[in-house]
UniProtKB/TrEMBL annotation:
The chain crosses the membrane at residues 31-52, 58-78, 154-174, 181-204, 230-251, 263-289, 309-333, 359-380, 386-405, 420-439, 445-461. It comes from the Bacteria. Coiled coil: none annotated. The keyword Transmembrane applies. This is Amino acid permease. It holds the Pfam family AA_permease_2. Its main location: membrane. It comes from Phenylobacterium hankyongense. One of its GO terms (cellular component) is membrane. GO terms for molecular function: amino acid transmembrane transporter activity. It is a multi-pass membrane protein. It is found in: Membrane. The keyword Transmembrane applies.
Length: 471
């Protein structure tokens, strides 16, 4: 069988792997919290400023477009996760639906999502942490609070490195233990956003929404070299919505996959969409977009400008405490993707070893170290866009895998069935392709260069080491 076309069986015996076996310890509240923890984070706490700078008040429309695309993708993920309750997420679905080479490419692309997202959120967390420390007179020297390509430039973003390594340590303690901590931090984070809305609504000014679309709808490059427009912003703040796919990486650890995964994926997506739209509207109504767009901590900045210094400190504190839930969720997801690739033989089998606490320690450590290095030296917007490219590839692959298996294996039991799959699937693919096209040219070049490197790695190692190749 050709390495291009050989496929992983849908009915894989994933749970009989001995030392490469993950424990079923998570129930649906853990999974909803994992999804909400991943989705609500840097996107609303920091990237709302980036998006407003690109689209103006129409950033609300950008949120709606990105959310709609994610909703279509979430429905595809819900079907595939319950059909194949195995670790690996889009990598596993692509492997079963389209073959080993495509599966590898998507697994390699997921590194751009999960590991890079960890770094992105760590950089966003650092901005809030530094602001919180400065307000108490404890700020770090500027050279230790920004990477060499940040604005302003520094030597290394030390807070971002530190929080990434702390989260890595938490994940090594145990899956259920870290999920429980995540659950309580998510509650704290949502309460903080509710407080922000309550404080800003009295100062709501409709005039801040005029002109509504100052930079137009389609993505374009302004004379100053900045890519603007509603779709340009949607392509960046798309980052604010994804995260539900991290739930699918926990499929093998769900106690009741057919029920828990559906509730986790669909429930977290719906809840976060509502929260995002309300918070974005409150922020824009409270302050002109060009005032808070350049702030590294826009929500706290808005509260300070409105005369709520204590509340701004508390919002910054909420971000400092709760944004690590995003790092935790995506680092968890990356470790499970690496785990699945290693167990399939596409990466060294030793990486999928599980310790006595049920944690794949080698891949968790590897993910944490890589994310810490990127967080220490790269700027937020750049790494956020690169992460988006990898995520869009994964969403496209999952939707295609869902449609392929609907056609080729219609008899398979599907606890959750994507409604109107023949429409939702193509819409998910088309929406993701449009968002990908709206990304900066350098982002697309880096994405294809990264995957060219990945194909080289596969041909040199995975092609001959794959379990299907040696079976």
């Amino acid at each position: 069988m050709s390495f291009v076309t050989r496929r992983k069986p849908v009915e894989a015996e994933a749970r009989s792997e001995g030392s490469h076996h993950l424990r079923q310890t998570l129930s649906w509240p853990h999974l909803v919290a994992l999804g909400v923890g991943a989705i609500i984070g840097t996107g609303i706490y920091t990237l709302i400023g980036v998006g407003a700078g690109q689209a103006g008040p129409a950033v609300i429309l950008s949120f709606a477009i990105a959310g709609a695309v994610c909703a279509f993708a979430a429905l595809c993920y819900a079907e595939m996760a319950t059909l194949m309750p195995q670790a690996g997420s889009a990598y596993t679905y692509s492997y079963a639906g389209m073959g080993e080479l495509v599966g590898w490419i998507i697994g390699w692309s997921l590194i751009l999502e999960y590991t890079v997202v960890c770094s992105t959120v760590a950089v966003g967390w650092s901005g809030y942490a530094q602001g919180f420390l400065v307000s108490h007179g404890w700020g770090l020297p500027a050279a230790l609070a920004a990477g060499p390509w940040g604005e302003p430039a520094g030597l290394v973003n030390l807070p971002a490195v530190a929080i990434t390594l702390v989260v890595t340590g938490m994940l090594l303690v145990g899956t259920r233990e870290s999920a429980t901590v995540n659950f309580y931090l998510v509650i704290f984070k949502v309460v903080a956003l509710v407080a922000f809305v309550a404080l800003t609504l009295p100062g709501f000014d409709p005039s801040h929404f005029h002109p509504f679309m100052p930079y137009g709808f389609n993505a374009h490059v302004d004379p100053d070299g900045v890519k603007r427009g509603v779709m340009a912003a949607a392509a960046v703040i798309f980052f604010a919505f994804y995260g539900f796919d991290a739930i699918s990486t926990a499929a093998e650890e769900a106690k009741n996959p057919s029920r828990d995964l559906t509730i986790g994926i669909v429930g977290s997506m719906l809840a976060c969409a509502v929260i995002y739209m309300i918070v974005a509207a409150a922020a824009l109504g409270a302050s002109p977009f060009n005032v808070f767009a350049k702030s590294g901590e826009p929500l706290a900045f808005i509260l300070r400008e409105m005369g709520h210094p204590l509340a701004s400190v508390l919002i910054a504190a909420a971000a400092v405490i709760a944004l690590p839930t995003v790092i935790m969720a995506f680092m968890f997801g990356q470790s499970r993707v690496f785990f699945a690739m290693s167990r399939d033989g596409l990466l060294p089998r030793g990486l999928s070893a599980v310790n006595r606490r049920g944690v794949p320690a080698p891949v968790t450590l590897m993910t944490g170290i890589c994310a810490a290095l990127m967080a220490g030296f790269l700027p937020l917007k750049f790494i956020a866009e690169v992460a988006n490219a990898g995520t869009l590839a994964a969403f496209i692959a999952t939707a295609i895998a869902m449609m392929v298996l609907r056609r080729q294996r219609p008899e398979l039991p599907r606890p959750f069935r994507t409604p109107l799959w023949w429409l939702v699937g193509p819409l998910a693919v088309a929406g993701c392709l449009y968002l990908f096209w709206s990304l900066a040219d350098i982002t697309k070049v880096l994405f294809f260069a990264w995957n060219a490197l990945g194909v080289g790695v596969y041909l040199a190692y995975g092609r001959t080491k794959s379990r299907l190749a040696v079976a």
